[in-house]
Amino acid sequence: MFKKILIANRGEIALRIIRTCKEMGIKTVAVYSTADAESLHVRFADEAVCIGPPPSNESYLKISNIIAAAEITNADAIHPGYGFLAENSKFSKICAEHGIKFIGASPEMIDRMGDKASAKATMKEAGVPTIPGSDGILESYEETEKLAMEMGFPVMLKATAGGGGKGMRAVWKKEDLKKAWDSARQEAAAAFGNDGMYMEKLIEEPRHIEIQIVGDAFGKACHLSERDCSIQRRHQKLTEETPSPFMTTALRKKMGDAAVVAAEFIKYEGAGTVEFLVDKHKNFYFMEMNTRIQVEHPITEQVIDFDLIQEQILVAAGVPISGKNYTPKLHSIECRINAEDPYNDFRPSPGKITTLHSPGGHGVRLDTHVYAGYVIPPNYDSMIAKLITTAQTRTEAINKMKRALDEFVIEGVKTTIPFHRALMEHPEYLAGKYTTKFMEDFKMPEQK
C-alpha cells in the first residue's frame, strides 16, 4: 500500500481524498496556488507545497511543479481528483517515468477514450450501442452535408477534442448547417487548438445517464449502477440523482452490462464512468467515457455504502475488485452549490463568505472546502459545495433536500441555493419527467 499520496487538485475533492487517505493510514501532501493558501485542503493535509501563482496554467496545470512537489515530499502516488490533470495522458506518463503511481487511467487508456471519435470507434468494436454518425473526423463541409442528408435532420456537430459544451451545435434543418459548421470549428479551435469535427444523429428528448464502473489490473470490471445527470445548463451538470426515475430493472441490466463490456474490452483499470444518452423509447447510446472520479460520485457511495476513493486507491495498489455489480437500495440526490447568481443568468460571484451555516441531520452529507471568512477566488470553477441527501424513496430524498437547502445559509456571495430550492418544487422534476433540455424552459421564480 502507498505510504504517501500527493493530491494534485484543490477544493472539495482534495479534501475528500485527504479524508479517505487518513482513514486508510496513508500520509497526504496538498499542493496549492497562492490563491488557495487559506483553503481547508492545505490545513488538513499532513504536508503542503505551494506550486505557483493563481492562474491554473502556472499552478494546478503545471506538471513540472507538481512532480517536483511529489519528489521533495517523497510521495509514492498522485491522485489527480477530477478536472485539471485528471485526464491528461502526458501527466500520467510522466508520473510513471518518475516512479510515482498515478491513481487513474494509463496514458494509453486516456488517449484511447479521451478523443471522442476514437472512443466511439472502440465502443463500436466492443459491441456497445453508439449514436449513428460519422466514422471519425469529418474531412470537409461537403462530406458533412452529404452525411446529414443521409441520416436526416436533426443532427449534432461535435468537436472531437470537446468538453463543457464547446464546439457543439444542434442543427435542425439543412439551411443552418453551414453556419453551424463554421462557428463550431472556430469555437473548437479557440478552446482546444483543434478544429476537428464529427457529427451524430441528434437524440430527441434525451436523458444523460451514466454508469459508474470500476476495473482492476486483472481485466475484471463491475458496475455500481447509474446516475441521472440530465439537469444541465450549457452542458454543465447542476444536480444528479440515483437511481434514475427513468430507469427500469431491465434497462439497468442492459446498460450496466454494456458498461462492463466496455470497461473489460479496453482492460480499464480504476474508477470511471461510461456515459450514455437515452432516448424517450429507452434506446441508449454510448456518448463518452470519463477516465476519472466524477464530481457526482457521492450519491453512488450513499446508496450502496461504498467508498469510491478508497476503491481507486486499492485498485491502483494492485488489489483485485470483488467483481460484484450493485443495485441502489436507497435514493440519493446531489445539488451542486456554485458561487453564481441564478437571478442574473448564473453570473459568477467570487468574494468573501461572511456567514456560513451548514445543514445537517440524518441522511444529509455536505462536501465542501469553504467556511465563514473564506475568500472564493475568481480563478477556478465556481462550485463551492455539494449537498447530498439520501432516503428510502425519491420523495423522501426531495423533501430532505428542501429542508437541507432551507438550513443552508451562505452570505457575502450569491449562490445557486435558491435555484435548487425552486427546482425541488418544479412539477416536471417532481414527476421525474425531465430531459437534458429542461433548463431551456426553466424560469427562476420572483426573488423574495
What key attributes describe this structure?
single chain, 448 residues, alpha+beta, Rossmann fold, Dna Ligase, domain 1, D-amino Acid Aminotransferase, Chain A, domain 1
Secondary-structure blueprint of this entry?
Layout: E1 4-7, H1 11-23, E2 27-33, H2 40-44, E3 47-52, H3 63-72, E4 77-79, H4 89-97, E5 101-102, H5 107-114, H6 116-126, H7 141-151, E6 155-159, E7 169-171, H8 177-192, E8 197-201, E9 207-215, E10 221-233, E11 236-242, H9 249-265, E12 270-278, E13 284-290, H10 297-304, H11 308-316, E14 331-338, E15 340-341, E16 347-348, E17 351-352, E18 355-357, E19 364-368, E20 375-376, E21 383-391, H12 394-407, E22 409-411, H13 417-423, H14 427-430, H15 438-441
Parallel strand pairs: 1-2, 1-4, 2-3, 4-5
Antiparallel strand pairs: 6-7, 6-8, 9-10, 9-12, 10-11, 11-14, 12-13, 14-21, 15-16, 17-20, 18-22, 19-21
Helix pairs in contact: 4-5, 12-13
Written description of the protein model:
By secondary structure, the protein is of the alpha+beta class. It has 3 domains: 4-103, Rossmann fold (3-Layer(aba) Sandwich); 132-201, 2-Layer Sandwich (Dna Ligase, domain 1); 207-441, D-amino Acid Aminotransferase, Chain A, domain 1 (2-Layer Sandwich), CATH 3.30.470.20. Helices cover 33% and strands 26% of the residues. The protein has 15 helices and 22 strands. The chain has helices spanning 11-23, 40-44, 63-72, 89-97, 107-114, 116-126, 141-151, 177-192, 249-265, 297-304, 308-316, 394-407, 417-423, 427-430, 438-441; strands at 4-7, 27-33, 47-52, 77-79, 101-102, 155-159, 169-171, 197-201, 207-215, 221-233, 236-242, 270-278, 284-290, 331-338, 340-341, 347-348, 351-352, 355-357, 364-368, 375-376, 383-391, 409-411. Strands 13-12-9-10-11-14-21-19 form an 8-stranded antiparallel beta sheet, with helices on both faces. Strand 10 (221-233) and strand 11 form a beta hairpin. Helix 4 (89-97) runs antiparallel to helix 5 (107-114) and helix 12 packs antiparallel against helix 13 (417-423). The longest helix is centred in the middle third of the chain and has 17 residues, at 249-265. The radius of gyration is 21 Å and the shape is globular.
